[in-house]
Every structure is written in structure tokens, then in C-alpha cells.
Amino acid sequence: MSEMQNNIPDNKQNNAQTNANGSADSNENGDIAQRVNNRSLRPRSSDFKNFMLSGWGEETQDVKPLESSRYTPSRIRDLAEKFLNERIVIPAGNHKTRSNDCTYMFRPDTSFAYYTGLGEDYEAGAVLVLEPAADGCSGKTEDGKTEDGSHKPILFVHPRKDQTTQDYYRSAEYGEYWVGPRPGLAELEIMTGFETADIETLPEALKANAGTGAGEYAIRVIRESDETITELVEQIRFSAGFEDEEANREKDDLLHEAAAEQRMIKDEYEISEMRKAVNATKRGFDEILKALPSALNKPRSERILEGRFNSVAREEGNDEGYDTIIASGVHAPTLHWMRNTGVVGSGELLLIDAGVEVNSLYTADITRTFPTDGKFTDFQRKLYNAVLESQQAGFDAAKPGATYSDIHHACMRVIAQYLYDWGILPVSVEESLSENGQQHRRWLACGVAHHLGLDVHDCAQARYENYQGAKLRPGMIFTIEPGLYFRENDMLIPEEYRGIGIRIEDDVLMTENGPEWISSGIPRTAEDVEAWMARMSEAGNA
Questions:
Q1: How much is the average pLDDT of 392-403?
Q2: Per-residue DSSP letters for 455-497?
Q3: What global pTM score does this model have?
């Protein structure tokens, strides 16, 4: 990685002295926050500045309206109708530090991505403001006409730091010398269909007409996205007469809750992106299975397989939707085993939980459990089929009008029955399933379903009654993922069960006619899994 400059000021930093080559050296006595700049000598002469900004040809970007821009106006309108005459602030968030002056790749806040349609790493530091305007517009329709709505979206962004500005080479975050050409105000207006404005004008825009009087507005913010923006909003609210911090927080929470609950019903674009994510994930699993035979019994072979999947995620999408889980043998009962440092051994079961996040940031979430040698033993098959039956029971319970809880109870009844039949459950099935029992949860403590979309655990800010207690409706996308997790040191089970973990997870779309396996193209039954492994092994040897 090349060195990065962090917004180098024109003046000499601290006790910096300019040498004969026009470079400034900061000594170790400077401000500790600036000592990161001691790593390299930086040219500061006026000749260099003039030379750096001259002699460049015109650089254009071929930008087009995003496909999502056909859908964001209705998303914004639905949200805004819940908060009439209130200014809504939705930040994208900023870079997060990985270590010292290095940051993680930027990923925008989920609410920002949903209402702008901007995925990937387009615009760190941007802010979407929904401005109350009775005669405003919520965006542009497919034919370019405006739609009337209660709020007007304005996207506040950083202008391009191209070769016409010194920030071109001075700003590590936005300078295009460092990060390459990025969309600015004009480009993002084309991409989103929204009016755009310089981020520097945001404070004044938020202050305008903020207050409790007639013709004035309250402000709500997705407060978790960007601490700096939240602090700015709080200062403006306090000055405008909204001095109750707890009341402000409660109103902000209601905004975040409404945004999460709105995402529960996916539109056509979102469903299409989810199908892309699932298809890419299938190809990632294919690559794992091609590499599996040669990876067996090698040191850190879990990471060998992780690398195969993650390369597909980067080649075909934006990234992994979450840290990939490659858990072989005794690691499989650890629900979120993400170290992936173990050896994939012969004769074991291999649990893989992985999903590709496509460029729009929608992610799949798939889990499969494989026999490392390509064939299940009779004992492994018995356990695998119990989990598969549990998953199918959850799917069969997932009808329009049913609830998440119905899926949960259907899956758990099958698991409890098998644990009883195997002599593991110490009480009756009914006692275990009762509210005061739940002994079967020792071996399946986690939930068996969750919403899926821009977040792998999507819509998490929704109210309980609108999640677990809510009726399943067409357009919802969720997982069904029962499992059995027998820890290596569990003395309450026979020895042959210890150190085995099995999970089967698929992605489901609720339609008017019932549930649809989005991931039906990924083999699930023991026989189909074995055949899949054989095909991929042969392809890997070709």
C-alpha cells in the first residue's frame, strides 16, 4: 500500500523545516495527531503546486441513471408521509479506522443506501436530506418527469477533488490522485435523480426554518450513521427550541424504526438484486468444492477455502456480505466461527456459512454442511436429514398471514422430536417445547429465521410485534436456518454426537402464492449435496 497524505495544510506543520529540495520534514516534537505525516517528505514549493495542477487533459465520466433511481422516489415518499412537516436527515456515514491512519473500505449506512440507491463506496460523508415542501418533488419517474410528494430530496456531497484543485493530491479521502475519479455533484444528480448540493452548505440548510413556530420544522436524524452529523443536528435543535435530548433521541429512534420496517417489503429491483446475490453465492460455493479435495488435511485449510469464496465475492460483487464462516469438525458447533484457522480433516462435516454482497449492497446468506470426503456416513446422514426436515417444516409453515414465530415453532418441534427419539432430550417433547421448558434449545439456541436484504440481519430496528409477531407478506425475503450444535465437551450427549455441527440455511421470498426458495438452485438434500461435490471435484481436477 502506498503512503497516504491526510489533508496536508499549506503552512509548515509544527516545527517543520523546508529542505533544499522543497520538501518539509516534521520533527518528532510536533502534535501527536500529525506525527503520522513524518513518514515521508512532502513537496510544498509553489512551483510544485503550479506544476501539479497544470498539463492535464479533460477527464470525463460516463454516468447513467442508476436502475434503483426508478424505485427510490416511492421509498422516499412512503417514509416522508410518516413525518410530514419534519426535516429528515440520513447520513451515509464516514470511513472507519482499521489501524492508525488506514481505514476500512467505505460502505454507506443501510438507510442511506436504501433511500438513495447508492451502493459500493460512492460517497463517504454524504448526507441525504428530505426537505419538507408541499410543492416539492420526491424524485424523477422513468420518463424524467417529477413526482409530487411531501418532501424534496437533496443530496449533500463533496465536490470532486480533481486536477483543478489542490485537494487533488492533498486529500487522502477525496483527492482523485489517491482514490481515482469519483462522482461529484453533477454525476450524482444524474445517477440518483436528486438535486445535489455542496456538503459545505449543509449546516446552513439544516438551520433554515428550524424551530417550533408556524412554517418551521423539527428535525430527525438517523443518529447512528455519523456522530458528527448527529452532533450538528443536536446543536441546531437545541438552538431552535428542541432542548429535550431524550425526546429528540426517541424521535430519532422512531425514524430509524420506520426506515427498518419499510425495508421488510422488497420491491422488484430489490428482489432482482437478491437473486443476483444468491446466484453469485452459488458460484462461490462451487469454487470452494473444487478446492476442497486438495485442501484436505492441510494447515489452515479453512482459510484456503475461505479465500476461494471471497475471491468470487470480490470478482462478482462488492464484497462478502459478512465474514465468511468455514467451520470444519469441532469448529462447526461454534455458531459464528470466523477465525477459519483450522484444518479441514478427512471424514469430518464442514459447515460453510457465506454470502456474496453485490454492488448494490444486497447480500445472500446461505449455509451448507458437507461431508469432507464427499459422502455422508450413515450417522452423519441421520443428523443431516433431521435438520433438513426441520428446515422444510419451517418452509411449509411460512404462508402468507403466518408469522415468523410460526416458522420458529415448526422448526423447533422437529428438532425436539428427533432429540427425544435419540434419547438426548431429558424431558418429553411437549415439556421441552413449553415456555417453561426449552431444554432442546441447548442444541439450537439461536433463532431459525431473519429478514435479509441490504443487511444480512435486515430490518433489525423494527419493533418485535412487527418482526416476530408480524404476518408474513408478499415481498418479504428471509432465511430459514435450523441446525444442531453438539459441543465437543457436552457430557449430556453420547460421545458419537460430540464435536458435530450442522446448519442448512436458504433464502426465501414470500409471494402471494406462498414461499419460494430463492436459493433452490443450491443443492440441499444429502444425495444432491453428494452429487454436487462429485461434479465440482471433477471440475477442479480438469
A1: 96
A2: STTTTTTS-GGGTTTSBP-TT-EEEE--EEEE-TT-TTS-GGG
A3: 0.91
